[in-house]
Each structure stands twice: as C-alpha cells, then as structure tokens.
Design goal:
The chain has an eight-stranded mixed beta sheet with strand order 3-2-1-4-5-6-7-8, sandwiched between helices. By secondary structure, it is α/β, with parallel strands linked by helices. The protein starts with a strand and ends with a helix.
C-alpha cells in the first residue's frame, strides 16, 4: 500500500516523518509532493519525491495537507489522476464533504491532528463520508495510531472536536502563561522555575486523573480542603473563569463559521 502526502507544511511534514519512523512505511511506499519541491530535499531518504498528479496516480491513500485557499486548486489538479478506489484525506475542518464532492466524488476522510503528535500523543479527530468502508477505516486508524489516539466524530462535531484537541494546546498554553505571569508578580522565584514547576504539576495532574480515572471535582475536593488555602483559589476560578471560557468558545466557533463560509464561497467560484 502506498501513502501519498501533498503539502510539506507543519502537519504534512509531521505526518511524513511519523509515518516513516513510527508506522514503518518504506521509502518506496511513502510519496511526497509540495509546491516548493526544494523543501522536500530533507525527506529524500525517507520518501519518494514527485509532483501532485504522479503522487495521486500511485497512492492508495492521499493526504492533502494544504491551506483552505489552496484546497480547490489541488483537488482539481489531482481529481482525474486519483485511483478509483483511493482514499482521499484532507486536513482541514472548514472544507466539508459536500464542497469536496463538487470537485471529486470519492472515498474521503477528514483528519485533525494535534500539535502533541510531535511526542506521539495526538488526540486526532477523524470523520468519513458515506463511501468509506470498514476496511478503509481500519487502515487509516492504524496509520493515525502511530501519532497517538484516534477519535471518530460525525462531521457536524468536527469543529468543536478541533477546539478540544487541536486548538487546546494553544488555549492551555495561554491560560498557564497568564498564571505564571501573575505568580511572578507575587514572588522572587525566577520565571523559568515558575514555568517548570507549573508545567510539571500540570502534566502530572493530567496523568494522575487519567491513570486513576479521577474527575475534576474529585481532584479539587482532595486538594482544596474546607476552609483551606486552595479552596480560596478554586472559588475565584469557578466564579470568574466560566465567562472567559464561554467567550473563548463563542469567538473561536464564530471564527470557524466565517472561515467555513469563506471556503464554501471559494469552492462555488
């Protein structure tokens, strides 16, 4: 089975190297194409470098890892070259299956990885159109398992799913950046030490909850004893943070809606 990846941006590059290193895809079975072919020189020893149409004609699974503004052009270019039974995989939640069907009607999946794929702990969202069979799903899930956990959602939930796994590293980093900055104004502990202390505690807390199957409330209850110091802090968070969280999702989901409208207009033009 041959795997093709079009686009060598951050996600395309990550998938290419992970499929080679973690999934053990041989160079002859891993194809790569990019608009600027020079960028692929570093991958010449792990993949077969070719153009978009050659890749589409040879590959059983074609990952299209390009910007939404380039998606229609790339799909139009490769539509006639795709194998009849090929599985097309796009990495953009704003491009719907209905949009893609206007250019090429084939087995199609959407995949949304997370930045944490870099340490093989991605929570990868995947959804399928009605043409994708059970065998195709098994093969794709096997590939994506090389970068972490695979979560299947219906297409209408991919947006929120993306907020929770793909966008979440950015949300978490910004929240704890604020916390560390605020802590720094109350202590002489160096910032790098504050950040290390907070990150290690955050990571350990997440692992503790997953390994012990603890809820958020159980952790709060175990740490924030009645009348204690931690309770004072958790009260502030539960009182003040919900409005910020609601506004965050309101803004991001609205931006996602506008991006989808723009993508739809581009596919109609």
């Amino acid at each position: 089975m041959k795997i093709g990846i079009i686009g060598y941006g951050s996600m395309g590059r990550m998938l290419l190297w992970k499929f080679s290193e973690n999934a053990g895809i041989a160079q002859d079975d891993l194809l790569a194409a990019n608009r600027t072919s020079e960028k692929l020189s570093e991958a010449k020893d792990i993949a077969t470098i070719c153009d978009n149409t050659t890749l589409a004609a040879a590959s059983d699974i074609v990952f299209v890892c390009v910007r939404p503004s380039d998606m229609k052009t790339v799909l139009s270019e490769i539509s006639s070259a795709l194998k009849e039974d090929a599985l097309l995989v796009t990495l953009n939640g704003s491009i719907t299956f209905d949009m893609i069907r206007k250019i090429v009607d084939c087995k199609t999946a959407k995949v949304i990885p997370s930045l944490t794929a870099e340490i093989d702990r991605s929570q990868t969202i995947v959804c399928y159109n009605g043409l994708v069979g059970a065998d195709d799903k098994t093969i794709l899930r096997g590939l994506l398992s090389s970068i972490g956990k695979v979560i299947e959602l219906p297409e209408n939930e991919v947006g929120m799913g993306s907020e929770l796994v793909s966008c979440m590293p950015g949300f978490i980093a910004s929240i704890f950046d604020v916390i560390c900055t605020s802590a720094g104004s109350h202590t002489s502990i160096p910032r790098e030490q504050i950040v290390s202390m907070v990150l290690n505690t955050m990571s350990a807390t997440g692992d503790l909850m997953l390994h012990k199957d603890l809820s958020f409330n159980e952790v709060v209850t175990r740490v924030a004893t009645k009348g204690g110091i931690t309770e004072e802090g958790t009260k502030v968070i539960y009182d003040m943070f919900p409005s910020a969280a609601d506004e965050m999702f309101n803004k991001t989901l609205e931006k996602r809606r506008l991006t989808a409208e723009k993508a739809a207009a581009a596919f109609e033009s």
